[in-house]
Amino acid sequence: MTRRTALKCLHWAVLPLTLWFVLVQPRDVALIGSWAVQLHSVLGLIFVTLALIWWADYLRRGLASRPGPKLGPRARVVHQALHKTLVWGLFGVALSGFLLGVTASRQLWAGGIVPIGMPLSLPRANDWVGRVHAAEFYILAAIVAFHAGFHIWRHVRLRDNALRIMLPRFFYRFL
């Protein structure tokens, strides 16, 4: 599998998880039962694992995307900034999630599988980190929406195949 194909798979695996965490809160799943809380936690572990893989690939090889010849100078800057912000933002969400576990009053487990640090029982820090984690995630979600809009604009306005590059071949006929 080529790097581009692997990143496409990663991209399309992270997107539904992002939507899940935007729409479904831990308090929502707690109302359903412990199995739903466990599922939410497993999805969080998958999300963080994919985010860290993406971040590690970026650190090792840099961005895989190129701005394209039809983008103007300002749009090229926005293109690169968006992609770097998304990759670093994913890492930041993973890091603040880890800090939630470290500052917790009891041992937390990601997906019931991986312990999240040694709990230091720092309730004020845990509250602060929780707020940062939530704000960081929703800001990142807004950036994801802007990113999608940017690529749709490129595809429609500039007709530069920006969507075709990232979509699986099956969807090409709809573009």
Strand content: under 5%
Q: Tell me the distance between the termini.
A: 25 Å
Strands of the widest sheet, in order across it, are: 1-2
Helix amount, in percent?
A: over 70%
Average of per-residue pLDDT values: 91
- Protein structure class: mainly alpha
DSSP strand count: 2
Radius of gyration: 18 Å
Can you tell me about this structure?
By secondary structure, this protein is an all-alpha fold. The protein is elongated and about 55 Å long. Strand 1 (109-110) and strand 2 form a beta hairpin. Strands 1-2 form a two-stranded antiparallel sheet. It contains six helices and two strands.
Task: Explain briefly what this protein structure is.
This protein is mainly alpha-helical. 73% of the residues lie in helices and 2% in strands.
Which terms summarize this structure?
175 residues, mainly alpha, 2 strands
What's the topology here?
Layout: H1 3-23, H2 26-32, H3 34-61, H4 73-103, E1 109-110, E2 114-115, H5 123-158, H6 162-166
Antiparallel strand pairs: 1-2
Helix pairs in contact: 1-3, 2-3, 3-4, 4-5
